Amino acid sequence: MEKRGHHITRKTFQRLLVGITALACMLPLLGSGTFQSREAQILVLQDELSPGSPISVILVIPTPQPPQYKAGDMLPLQALLSSSEKRPIQKAPFFYTDQIQLAGQDYILAMAILVVPNTYEEKNIYLDVQFEKAASIASSFFAGLNLPQTHNFPVSPRSFNSETIALGPENTDIKTKPDPQKNKEAAELWKLLTSTDAGLFNTAGFTAPVDSPRRTSYFGDRRVYQYTDGSSERSIHGGIDFGVPRGTPVRASAPGLVRMARFRIVTGNTVIIQHAPGLYSLYYHMDSLSVTEGDLVQTGTELGKSGSTGLSTGPHLHWEFRIQGEFADPDLMVQTAPLDKERIISKITEKLGKTDRSTEGR
Ligand SMILES: [Zn+2]
Questions:
Q1: What is the CA(237)–ligand 1 centre distance, in A?
Q2: Helix %, strand %, coil % for the chain, to 5?
Q3: Percent of the chain with pLDDT over 90
Q4: Domains in the chain, start-ordered, CATH in brackets?
Q5: What is the Å distance from ligand 1's center to 332 Cα?
Q6: pLDDT at 290 over 90
Q7: How far apart are CA 135 and CA 40, in angstroms?
């Protein structure tokens, strides 16, 4: 009986869906004359994407009366990345960044930060924008807002280095010995790196944490760890290693909020800074720390001295970026400045300013 009831319900539901879809198809026609529909424009800051590239998605939303938001406030919108088979890759919430005026019209700017995974091998990547909870949208500032269609971006192929690292007894233990404290620390780290707490602290670029040009490992290196018992394990290096002597000052890459500053078994003395919701820079294996959790730092603030604590085969600084939990290439973070307000506004003016003028001319 239950089963039959379920079937009837589903059929009714399907009919309803057909009805709703038909209605939804008619809405744009009605909207063109009757309602004041608002179209959100979308743009991506980066001109080229490759594995490890940050993706700054900016929504430009026309608004008659700008609502009161602070930079870094979370909005009920999300960006979704998927592959050609609609396989979901990543999602990121939008946060409020700024208000601008273009050709006499007010807009608010919303931003979401994503990254092309360094294991991504397809030629294209797909971007969608969605409301988070449809029910809460109806009565909000976002009511009547039309979101852009799916966008498709080419992804340039990229190859990575391979390296084999033989670990001594101590480092083998760190990697292989079961340890509840290590598991607890891994869970805490993952929880932090996948959190998207409100707060935008950087609206400019990123810089390297040490002056040294000497690098001992690169972003995306395919590593094989060889253990003392003859077994081995594959892993991917998520950051850049700078071969600096112990005691070198380590400096913050950009303004941010210190979310972690403590010793961890695998990464030694560790600092993690939030720069935007879901965007973090990480500094590992330091000898000492000079900041504490909750500190606000500026570009160049000393975080501590470099060292060789945790799983490390010699003095170096490991520098890493995470976006929605995924590794982002530190060099591309510096080059493409994904949070740089000036770059974003000049790109909007260049793209949408032209559209506005052509509309005026009609
Ligand atoms: Zn490293």
A1: 6
A2: 25, 40, 40
A3: 74
A4: 162-336 (2.70.70.10)
A5: 17
A6: yes
A7: 19
